[in-house]
Amino acid sequence: MKLTFWGAARQVTGSMFLLELEDGYTILIDCGTDLDKQKVERDKLLGHYSLFPFEPSQINLVLLTHAHIDHSGNLPNLIREGYEGQILCTTATLPLADLLLRDAAALNAKRVKELQSEPAGKKKKTSKKKFRHNPLELYLEKQVHETTDRFVTIGFNQKFKVSKTISVTFIPTGHLLGAANIVLDIEENGVKKSIGFSGDVGRKNYPLLPDPQRMPQVDYLVCESTYGGRRHADKDAPEEALAKIIKETCIDQPGRLIIPAFSVGRTQALLFVLNKLYTEEGLPPIKVFSDSPLALASTRVYEKNIGLLNKEAKEFYEEHEELFDFDNLTYVQDMKQSKAIANYNEPCIIISSSGMISGGRVEHHVMTNLPNPYATILLVGFAAEGTLGNKLLKGMRSLSISKDKEIPIMATIKSIDVFSGHGDLDDLTDFVEYQSNDKLKTIFLVHGELESMESFKSHLHYRGYTDIQIPKWGDEFEL
């Protein structure tokens, strides 16, 4: 069989791996949106009208590790381009992926409207500046509905027979509700082989989610390496870290705390920890605004899947009957309410998306409060190069918004990583080292920046693993 890497190769986004068996049966593992700048160059090689480097109609099966858009976001395009098969995922992944894909489709609809309203002579230039992908990638809600109709859900740890010679198992990995590592067991020409795909490896003791489970022994392992070159810096429990910052920013100094956070996963972890602080730790009644309709919808999905959460969350729910709702919490519904928060003069906490401050309602909250010395902006996750979150973390002193206007940054900028959903070097090492050198033939490192991959490769070499590959985009390997 042959494994080809069509995404997350020497980059973080766009997970997409193609497994082709000798009898012609073809499996695609993940089909994520590629946000990397290298994609523009690859599109030139493929041709302007090529959305995929393979023929989607020839794919027999798609497996989805979890709902995040860098793993699921290209599925509507795959179906629009001719894929006719099923998409296998876990029970919680389906509703979260539906929410995220519909949110992407809504943004696409706005972009299509912008493109249609642009003067013909300016379309090409403006499109390149504002949206660097092929305009044909702008799927709409109709395509999302067609996509989710293809989803078939499989329970965790249930070996599902695809055919007489192929079975698939989804193994809990933390990181996000419903997220899984995938193991494919395949018999080919009388020889049995197993291939493991890590998806995104979660971390231990994360709010709401169970610890990642061990993956059984496999012959080949495709392993993410987002944090393969570093360890999480914060050692405090999430409750301790967040309570300390709230005390500094909203109690000792009566100000406002703005937390950019992704709507799916990160916001639920924050709300659960805040609920614990208010309910069990006696945190003063500081107003909390959760400003994201997508976050509210995602929170309701978490509430419907309490059986998939960790022991702590289940016990808290049994005692208090609520995981996320508490007296001081307000879910903000519309833009009018969102903008009105600027007029709230008491200390408060604002949680809004996006987590990198690269779009979404949080941009308004951040821009409004950058000149406010009584405001604190708390980054709780990775912020990619070029985003406002990344620039703030690097210590920029002012922000130019036009030739004639510059905003001084008087707000305090902080960051913590206790809410990062990705496992760090120690978590990834533990994940890989469960695999025996006697059985494991090759490790493929994906879903990380090249520097992180090379560091993790050296780390694993030191621990006795010899055949470690860092595939480039389009690299194929015989297994």
UniProtKB/TrEMBL annotation:
Signal peptide start and end residues: none
Question: What are the Metallo-beta-lactamase domain coordinates in residue numbering?
Answer: 13-262
Query: Any idea which GO molecular function terms this record carries?
Result: hydrolase activity; RNA endonuclease activity
Question: Does Signal count among this protein's keywords?
Answer: no
Q: What EC number(s) would the UniProt record show? A: 3.-.-.-
- The protein's enzyme class: hydrolase
State the superkingdom: Bacteria
Assigned keywords, A-Z = Hydrolase
The chain positions of domain Beta-Casp read 267-392
Q: What is this protein called?
A: MBL fold metallo-hydrolase
UniProt organism field: Xanthocytophaga flava
